[in-house]
Amino acid sequence: MTPSFPMTRRAMIAGAAGVALSAPMVSRGAYAFAAAPAKVYSRRAVDLVASSLVIDMLAPLKITLDENYVAHRLTEAEAAEFRASGITGFHNAFGLGGPDAKAQALEYLAAWQGFAGRNSHVFTLVDTAADLDRAKADGKCAVIMGIQNAEHFESVADVALFRRLGLRCAQLTYNSQNRIGSGSTDRVDGGVSDYGAAIIAEMEKQKMLVDVSHCGDRTTLDAIDIAKGPIAITHSNARALVDHPRVKTDEAIKALAAKGGVMGITGVRMFVRASDPTNVGHMADHIDHVAKLVGIDHVGIGSDADLHGYDDMKPEEYAVLKGAYKDSYAFRDKIDIDGFDHPLKTFDLVEELIRRNYSNDNIRAVLGGNFRRLLAQVWG
User: Fold this and answer.
1) Which helix (H) or strand (E) holds 114?
2) Alpha-carbon torsion 263, 268, 274, 275, what sign?
3) What are φ and ψ of residue 23, in 5° steps?
4) In terms of DSSP bridges, do strands 30-33 and 36-42 run parallel, antiparallel, or are they unpaired?
5) Distance CA 59, CA 35 (A)
6) Which portions of the chain are predicted below pLDDT 70?
């Protein structure tokens, strides 16, 4: 879903740590945050976020079509929003593709890792799963570098190259066909190609997480079957609850879990529910579905949005973004869901899971424990 960076027409078409526990208590057991005084959360929710390693497995640091943004130094207010979000792990991944995909990917890695370094008082880069733990202890936001495509792998040897340059996760396809397999919006899904099978094998050898979030149904199942170990659906939802080409069948979810994989649930409106209202409760319905289908150990969060969401984009950028996707994406007036469209959205989701009688351990697993386990297994 996330727009590409740097923004080229072809690329786009292809495709906090440190919770403010000093927040004032406004009523017995209820807490408000300076960043959002109108928002009130229970003590249990605040404590759960503070004590959890929260990993959002699709969380661009900034959704923007401005290629100069990477030179930006965060303001104190922006830095405070990241810290107050309760999110430690941000999987920063964009959709890149086209004839110059490799050059785009090289520029993307340099630009966003430079952005993290320029704002090192807030961010730290992730090499291993232990870096997520260290970031949590240090009160920083850990940036996992990913790409929502694999067209930049012009040869099998490129997997090792990009691994050395900091790439830790890659989708096999974006929404459309490439040399590896088919995308979710392709009319025909031919599955994973011979070249794709070689890329999957090399990604596992190089300890890079395989992601099939945007893959077509056949390609998704093929990739899970071909992989020797667990892979991820970092950001999608359940087709049993909403009929959309970008979400996954129960067959795929079961196959993923059988290999030890984890699926992140997204808050993109048309992937959550077919009609309005669409809110954080409906997002939690997808968590419920996956947990009941394959067990709580195989579900996490992949919001597919930055801290403020898509609907806060500049109007001209918002229009370009929507216009870059096929009609099958079925955009409505809003892209974000109600209650999950602001920097403290993790707390709203936790409150919903509390209302549904999830245990503290299960909430911690959904917030990041499951993805932490998967990343440690894949990365070594």
Assistant:
1) helix 101-118
2) positive
3) -55, 140
4) antiparallel
5) 20
6) 2-37
Question: Given the structure tokens 């892209």, which residue do they identify?
Answer: 335
Structure tokens at 155: 């040869």
- Residues 279 and 337: their CA atoms lie apart, in Å, by 5
Mapped to the 3 state alphabet, what secondary structure does 2-37 carry?
CCCCCCCHHHHHCCCCCCCCCCCEEECCEEEECCEE
DSSP codes joined into one string, 117-140: HHTTTTEEE-SSHHHHHHHHHHT-
Of 372, 274, 334, 308, nearest to 53 by C-alpha is 372
Handedness of CA 64, 302, 29, 83 (dihedral sign): negative
Q: What's the pLDDT score for residue 11?
A: 37
- 161 CB-near residues (< 8 Å, 6+ apart): none
Residue keyed to tokens 């208590």: 25
Task: Show the DSSP H helices in 128-268 as ranges.
Answer: 129-138, 157-164, 194-205, 217-226, 250-258
Residue 167 amino acid letter: L
Quick one: tokens of 60? 């661009």
Q: Provide the β-strand partners of residue 40.
A: 32
The residues that bridge with 264 in the sheet, in sequence order, are 300
Distance CA 376, CA 220 (A): 22
Closest CA to 121 of 138, 100, 96: 138
Task: Please tell me the predicted confidence (pLDDT) of residue 51.
Answer: 97
Q: What is the largest CA-CA distance in the chain?
A: 61
Spell out the domain ranges in the chain: 9-379
Residues 6+ positions from 198 with CB-CB distance below 8 Å: 156
CATH topology of domain 9-379: TIM Barrel (3.20.20)
The verdict on whether omega for the bond into residue 277 sits within 30 degrees of 0, i.e. cis, is: yes
Q: Using the structure block, give the residue that is written with the tokens 């190089």.
A: 206
Burial 118-130 (b: 16+ CB within 10 A, else e): ebeebbbbbeebe
Model pTM score: 0.92
End-to-end alpha-carbon separation of the chain, Å?
A: 29
The DSSP secondary-structure symbol of 369 reads: I
Region for 357 from its dihedrals, namely left if φ exceeds 0, alpha if ψ lies in -120 to 50, beta otherwise: left
